Queue: 2 jobs
Job 1
Amino acid sequence: MKKTAFIFTLTLCLSVSFFYSSGQLLPSFTNRLQFVLDSVCTVNHITGVSAAVLVPNGGIWKGVHGKSYDGAPLRTDMLLGIGSNTKTFMSALMLKLQEQGKVSINDTIGKWIHNKPNINGQITIKQCMNHTSGLFSYTEYPSFNDSLLADPSRIWQLEDMLGFVNAPYFPKGTNWRYSNTNYIIVGIIIKTILGKNIETCLRENIIAPQNLTNTIFYPQETSSLEIAHPWTMGNMDNKLEDMLAWGWYSSNAMFSMAGSAGAIMSTAEDNVKFWNQLMSGQIINSTSLNQMLNFYHIGTSNNGQPIWYGLGIFKYSNYWNGHVIYEHGGTLPGYLNENAVDDVTKVCITVLSNQDSINNGQLFDLVVKALHDVSIQTPAVGVEEVTGNSSNLNIYPNPAADKLTINVESMNGNLSVVLFDISGKQKFSGTISEQTTNFNIDELESGIYFALIRDEQGKIVSRQKIVVAK
């Protein structure tokens, strides 16, 4: 294939030292995750996927489907591009610098960015971080693809991207539009403040402290881990091809031009750890996390629910199974990434793909959702198995808030009830001594629980999923 026939579309957009061994994930849970991953990828003809699901206090499941290249199966220790999920890393880093008193996100970018055409110095860092700056996205510049392909081995600098910025979309602060230029500027400001290149800034402040040993800022950093081959239909002939089989292709230009807007490579395991660390307050403090989660309404999802954008993070209200989902995805030629954090269960999911012919929406709503469905339907750890539920026992209301009622049609001695959270940790216990017994559960947090009912001999007679919604 000739180099001139290939067209890049660099979208780069949407479409924890820590231990995770306090519980052991049940085989029924991990086997179900792998079965669902294989099934969804097979039905949708997805070349390769590396996925991870983290259950707080439970553990991490890792799974793969498909190939890196012909004859080489994808492995969980292979690196893939995470694209614009890089923005979430950069947002966390900027907020850490604010915690240290080195910057305020309300500062105007003109303090660091001078005399650049079409870039208003009165735009604030926060407006870049939440995409309300109005700045033109450099990846939409008419000659951007030509510049990218002119020398695929070239390593570009962040400042080079500011030469591809046209007139703004709208005056600052008046609207929302996703723009990769915003996070190039965030990266330039960070490296100027710290006086180091951006990969060193990121490694010293996020990657190393969080023990993300399989995460790199590419191509400036390298790793002993193998990089999964990227597959694309970017040659416009509707044929999926291994980009590294072309001979002339190098990832250097593509990733370096993505820069602080999309240049990170990682494993699914490292990436899901990052999301857990971030959302549980292990990277930035609660004040910073609240700022990150201060959302701007940007539209409506395909199921009619509102979508919001904070500082490097999306929020989907009432999206899957009535839950709020936090997420960010990414796209680069040959790579897709989607992530989800369930605000109810706190389960984190990462899916990386080395195929760009599906889109982010498909990856999110097909693969990530399928894994999310497993996470709320199957006990993850520590909850004993039961083959069937007693037909003469009812637990209600479900969802519950502060009270839970258990009704047993016929009593033959006392029963006991135990509620476990999704990680398998016991959260409530009680005795059922009457046909109708009421329990006060006002101390339970919102989330998914599994109720196990035992008879006096300890035999499990029922297991039911209970949703607590305050």
Job 2
Amino acid sequence: MLNLRERLVVGVAEDNPTTKPMYGAVRLASGLYTHDTPERLADEIQLACDLMGRTITTFMPDLERPIFYPWPRPATRTLRWVAAQALHEAEHHLGDIERQLDVDRSS
């Protein structure tokens, strides 16, 4: 959420910017998530989603601005598309969380 939020900010500040990679593999390999707990993650996800929601609301007039996005294939998209990706990610990770909670409860 925080990376996608920053992409929205850059998309409002710059004309048709190219997004930077999120470097997910580097984040994992370097241990950035090693000390996460379910409680901490719940708080951080809530905060990040709240920030994203406020950002989208604030930038509503600018959501048709273009941004070059290399994923899933290189294309110029809109900030509205980035906002939709954020919603998709939130839904996707909520499913991950629910599945992990089910595993933890059955253990």
